[in-house]
Amino acid sequence: MVDISHETVEQTESRLRRVMTESRLRVYSGTYAFVEFPLDQFPAAVRADALALVRDDNVWSQLVPSDGSQKERFGIFRFHFPAGADNSGFVGWLASHLKNRFGTGLFVTCGQNQADGGIFDYWGVPETLAGEVVEEVKRLVSGT
Predict the structure, then answer these.
(1) Integer Cα distance of 124 and 31 in angstroms
(2) Which has more pLDDT, 83 or 125?
(3) Rounded distance, CA 136 to CA 144, Å?
(4) Helix (H, G, I), strand (E, B) or coil at 17
(5) Domain locations in the chain?
(6) CB 26 within 8 A of CB 113
(7) Which helix (H) or strand (E) holds 55?
(8) Pfam families this protein is in (predicted)?
């Protein structure tokens, strides 16, 4: 479910910090990269180890463990939230926090698992900052 919240900036900050402590964080080992393939190669080119699969008008793009040859490699972590948690604004809030703290851009790819709280998020950050970013995320999840 996508919630609609009308609140002050301070209320949003407080709510999202609390929701973050209720979330379940998984940090993936190694690095990941996007690998593209033409539309007409679907589904044969889909890899079983892909975390995400998205497309535009020209290509499919899958997020897979990096073999080291890709120019852009990312550290990956994922959030699941409890059913009914109002996490509206979470992506923008955490992305802004990480940008302000580390200067980094990032990407977020979402999916849905109704049996496990609904929407979940994969977050990707540049390999060079992944360790520092993950430590900050763990700190926020712990509520400190």
Answers:
(1) 9
(2) 125
(3) 10
(4) helix
(5) 8-31+73-144, 32-70
(6) no
(7) strand 52-55
(8) DUF6196
Global pTM value? 0.93
Tokens of 27: 């940090």
**Cα separations in angstroms, 115 against 46, 80, 118:** 24, 11, 7
Q: What is the dihedral of CA 2, 19, 51, 40, to 10 degrees?
A: 20
Calpha distance 31→126 (Å, rounded): 9
Report the CATH architecture of 8-31+73-144: 2-Layer Sandwich (3.30)
Q: What is the pLDDT of residues 103-122, one digit of tens each?
A: 999 999 999 999 999 999 99
pLDDT digits (tens, 9 = 90+) for 37-83: 999 999 999 999 999 999 999 999 999 999 999 999 999 999 999 99
What are the tokens at 59? 């290509």
* Tokens matching residue 119: 């929407």
Which pair of structure tokens corresponds to residue 140? 């926020």
Residue 19, CA atoms < 13 Å, CB-side half-sphere: 22
User: 52-55 and 107-113 as β-strands: parallel, antiparallel, unpaired?
Assistant: unpaired
State which amino acid sits at residue 110.
C
